[in-house]
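FAQ: What does the model actually see?

It sees only this:
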Amino acid sequence: MADDSEEEEKMTLQDEFHWLLDKEVHSILGQIQDLLEDCSNRFLPLQTAAKHPSTKSETFVLSSTNGNGVKGVVTLTGDVISKADISLRYAIKGNNQILKTCLREDSSVLWRLQQIQDAGNHLKAAVNIITDTDPDVEFETGEEVVMLMDSIMAHIQKGQQRLLNPAKSTLEDVFSNKYLKSLYPPLPQDMVLDFYLQGAKLILQVYHLHASPLPKQHKTSIIAAGPRNKNIVEIGSSKYEVSSTSLVDSHIPWVGDVISCLTFALQLCQSLKDKIQVFSTYWGNRLPPQR
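And it is asked to produce this:
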């Protein structure tokens, strides 16, 4: 009786493992593909965003609770800030004045959020891995499925991290940003700004700079930062250092939705890997023999 019970259990596990490899893997791949394609539609570039119903221009007010004198109203379309009106508190000879600048919709240089573009590229790469997998393929081992999930998860994680954690920019990077040319009127020499995402927040960071002359014997350059000091930049015969920064932000709901969606996609991948691990432990990672 005990042998019969063990054999029955073995056969049941065998059937379940076959069903997992033949059916559930493809079902979960389909679910992940649907999730990623829905997210990818939100990352469409400006040229095609207007033609896609799920991507529309949205306007957000950037503000702060600490009264730092920075305010902004921005329009986000896909991966581009297509319009922005910005007001800044600017000290001239000890007197605070309000400085206004804007990003024009007709500007020849559109302010593109590289994080959104990079995240979109990673999601497309993950989708391509799924679409390149034959829907009728019969997986022979759990290891095959785990390797497939790992490659998909790697791109999803990279895409999600690009949205969650912006790259650390040096002052040189900000000064060299070509998108500053799209501001009109241009900012004073001792002020620069940058846009970036941190999670579901769109952040505008303003750098207030202090200028000091370089020694006469110092070789001048257009832009240099010495030993990559992220708070110092040299332009011509002057050295600029960050004296203070101001931040304002706004919550971007669809970015938050995408981050949550990617988390769910990762959970689906991990859940499938966990199931494979349970069976692989029993079967030694190989497909059990057919009955």
